[in-house]
# Entry
Amino acid sequence: MNLSTRVYGLLLLAYPPEFRREFGGQLLQVFRDSYRAEALNGSVPSFWVRTLLDLVSTAAKERIENPGREGVSMNRRSDAVALLGCAAIIAIAFLLQYVTRNSAASLILINYVLDPLVVTGVIGNFIVFLLSKTTKFNPLRIAITVFAVVHAACLLLIVVLSSSGPPVNWAGILIGYVLSFVIWVGLHFAWRTTNRNQALNSQH
Amino acid sequence: MTKEKPEAWLPLTPAMFHILLALADKERHGYEIMREVDERTEGKMRVGPGTLYGSIKRMLNDGLIEELDERPDPELDDERRRYYRLSDFGRRVAIAEAERLDKLVKSARSKKLLSARGT
# Structure
């Protein structure tokens, strides 16, 4: 199996498990056959572009039509509430950041928390949403891992950028990032616990 | 479900109609369907793997096509391939869609949107 076929095999994770079980082998075989023909014509890049566009649109369609056992409406409502909640928290943090920029509040380190809350919120929640929809890992574990990595990456970026810039308040930045991590992971924990309790109640 | 009138399925998506056309003369496996569509339309219509099997899934559910239990040429072919053929109902739906498109083309011709070529 060549590298392209292996990559396509991994990308098939975007489809719902039922669809993969039924047609995964066939999809892979058709991809392999098509790839061979396109490689002979020397048109592999355009073939990959077409295939990726096809995969994104059809995987989204299959996911919408077959979201899993919980049912379409429940999943969609739950996802929409979670996404709107995250967007609202990020928007409020962004506004607070703007409002308190020149006020006394900035003296008590509020902005050191709001900065990472906005940045890691946008990046982290996007990655958590994608991974929880396309993999079978525990959603809370995904959230903890992703937010840990995103916070660490942002801190590393600050270290790199500040090495050639003006001095920074490391204590404030560190406290801000720790609090931001606790806030986002805490919110995901609360959200998952509420969802699990609701699912248990509906089973009874 | 297949006892419904073929017209209830119209209009078909372009991918579904092309797949039905590909299966109109013989049974084929997935890659053969893709190639037939590509050659017949001179590369203007290309069905990707996801579109192909998404459509096949729907058409199997709706009874428009059937999966063959045996491969037509087991000697020459990969045993993992699955072959599909048009069901009787699928043929009626394909005919109904072709007639619908034919009427549409005739309307276009009467409005002089098409040249006399092919009249």
About this structure: Chain A has a mean pLDDT of 80. The two ends of chain A are 48 Å apart (CA to CA). Residues 72-203 of chain A form one domain.
